[in-house]
């Protein structure tokens, strides 16, 4: 009688059990083959048998390592895609901001007379004025009489003097005119020497200073260089004046202003003016708003952000019964990035103007975390307060007191609002102390420097006059600064994405090592099996020889018995 419960089949089994069953079946089949072959008393195909036994031991482990390697490679690839997306977002914004494409730009009516550029973070929507260039700044240039090319000088010195001090150059005995020029240039005292060769072959030494009247200079030679001299105050000496030193001079809205160079970067706040030529006619200065660039920048930002966020969402998806988990479903670094992106959209990006967040100009977050730009609201914002929309994208820095200016470069200071207080002066009007957020600042003339261990490290302020006692300092990152800061945080040596990358790199190395160890182990196993089967074949061969001998003897015995 057959029991109805004699065969029970499991409806679910683990992959490990299946692998073990396969391995057991393979081993049983191989053993059966060996026994059958031995039983038949024939030679063994040891190469095939060894290959099957090694494969039965190696394949399950190798399959696990292959699966682990594929999973880890997918993680590395996905992480690379996300990092690349973040880099692309950062690069595109940085290019727009640094290139000034989002800033209101100054305009001039005649660029052959002067050019004007906006400094990062400047607001120039109301820029208007008239500039008449009276004269350009010039550097003094003087030259010696002509010497024969074979001329050499005895030992001596050349002493240069201008409004800022003096410098002495030593001339070695036997120096040629070219050697004298090299000695002057090597001193790096603000004077440039050049040797001019005339058509006759004779040579002259030309010496040029820096631009500006204060950089006009005298030179006094002694010893072997005594015939190289010029007295600026008396306009006399052995040298000839080719170009006289003079300051640049212009009239801005009929107010005369001079500078030692042809660049005026402190005449109008946020504007750098470079003079090209003098003119009898004034040049009109105005501004050109980059509204279309700003609008497109907002839309491009939304597109780039959505691409990044979509890749993050796809690769961090949690697995369900109907879909697989993303390659980075449990990655802490990418989760940190995702959280930071969500926070940035609602982050205060500007402390001045009508708009301080992206949401206020029409950029909103969808349920899936991506962004949508309401172009109607964006256009309204651009029409109502374009400066504020610009400020959302451009890093800016400002003070509440016009007598306080920020001289440190934009981007060097952590965004935030800082309070300058307790500015004190001595009887001569020199600054003696100041605090920033309650922490002492370093004093250097009219400049105040934030302590290197404060949150405002890198901030440098310049004080005009002696009436300043306090001021509010606003450092705004803008979208460009915020994304750059996020990218730096995520990809720096201690960043979250870098940590994830390092983890997966270590996993890849560990898998490679396991594969190397497995190969070595299987090689040893193969050698052992080959040795065993070789010994077995030798034994079987001996048994077969003995059997053959016995058969022959039995045959002889049987034959002898029959014949007798």
From TrEMBL:
What family is this? Belongs to the FliD family.
Q: Pfam families of this UniProt entry? A: Flagellin_IN, FliD_C, FliD_N
Output a single Gene Ontology CC term carried by this record.
extracellular region
The segments labelled Disordered in the record are: 1-22
Q: Where's the Flagellar hook-associated protein 2 N-terminal domain? A: 42-140
Major site of localization recorded for this protein: secreted
- Keyword Coiled coil among record annotations: yes
> What domain of life is recorded for the organism?
Bacteria
Write down what this protein is called. Flagellar hook-associated protein 2
Statement: the UniProt record of this protein carries the keyword Nucleotide-binding? no
Q: Which UniProt keywords apply?
A: Bacterial flagellum, Cell projection, Cilium, Coiled coil, Flagellum, Secreted
- Could you mention a single GO BP entry for this protein? cell adhesion
Subunit and partners = Homopentamer.
Q: Per the database record, which ranges form the Flagellar hook-associated protein 2 C-terminal domain? A: 245-544
Q: What does this protein do?
A: Required for morphogenesis and for the elongation of the flagellar filament by facilitating polymerization of the flagellin monomers at the tip of growing filament. Forms a capping structure, which prevents flagellin subunits (transported through the central channel of the flagellum) from leaking out without polymerization at the distal end.
Source organism of this protein record? Zymomonas mobilis subsp. mobilis (strain ATCC 31821 / ZM4 / CP4)
Transmembrane feature ranges: none
Question: Any idea where this protein resides?
Answer: Secreted; Bacterial flagellum
Q: Which InterPro entries match?
A: Flagellin_hook_IN_motif, FliD, FliD_C, FliD_N
